[in-house]
Design a protein that fits this description.
The chain is α+β, with helices and mostly antiparallel strands and 158 residues long. 22% of the residues lie in helices and 50% in strands. It has a single domain, classed as Immunoglobulin-like.
C-alpha cells in the first residue's frame, strides 16, 4: 500500500516536472517572421506559377529553436491564392535569426490579375498577407503571420 502511494506520488511529481520543462522550452515571445525575398522561378508553359519565398525567422527567446518544417499560405485581398511547404533541419540560435526558403505555388492567377487591375500597373506592389506555421520536433506548430507588399512580375522579365 505504501509502495503504491509512493509510486503514484513519484509519477505525479515526474509528470509535473515534465510539463514544466515543456512549458519552459517554449519561446517567451512570439516569433517574428519577415519576408526577405519573393522571387519568380522559371515557368513552364501552362504550369502553375511558382515563386521562391525567402523568410527570416527571428528568435526572441533564450532557447535555441529547432525547426523541422514550415508551411505558408499566401492571401491576396483576404483570399488564399497560393501555398507551400518545406521540410527543414534548421536551428535558430537564442536571440538570433535564421533563414529558410519555401517554394510557393500560386494557383489563382485570376485573382492576381484582378488585383493588378485594381492597384494599377503590373510592376506595382500588391498588399498581401502571409500566414503559416513553423514546426518544431514533436510536431509542435508555431503560428506566424506577416503583412507586406509583393510584386508578381513574370519570371524571365516581362
Amino acid at each position: 500500500m505504501v509502495t503504491r502511494r509512493l509510486c503514484s506520488g513519484l509519477l505525479a511529481g515526474l509528470l509535473v516536472l515534465l510539463l514544466a520543462a515543456c512549458a519552459g522550452s517554449a519561446p517567451n515571445e512570439p516569433l517574428r517572421v519577415s519576408v526577405a525575398q519573393f522571387q519568380p522561378l522559371q515557368q513552364q508553359e501552362g504550369a502553375q506559377a511558382r515563386y521562391r519565398l525567402d523568410l527570416r525567422v527571428h528568435n526572441p527567446s533564450r532557447w535555441v529553436l529547432g525547426l523541422v518544417g514550415a508551411d505558408v499560405q499566401l492571401l491576396l485581398r483576404g483570399k488564399a491564392i497560393g501555398s507551400g511547404v518545406v521540410a527543414l533541419d534548421l536551428s535558430v540560435p537564442a536571440f538570433g535569426e535564421g533563414a529558410l526558403s519555401i517554394e510557393v505555388g500560386v494557383h489563382d492567377m485570376v485573382a492576381v490579375r484582378q488585383a493588378i487591375g485594381l492597384y494599377g500597373a503590373a510592376d506595382r506592389p500588391l498588399p498581401v498577407l502571409l500566414t503559416g506555421h513553423l514546426t518544431r520536433p514533436g510536431l509542435l506548430a508555431l503560428p506566424w503571420r506577416s503583412e507586406g507588399e509583393l510584386r508578381f512580375a513574370r519570371a524571365g522579365g516581362g
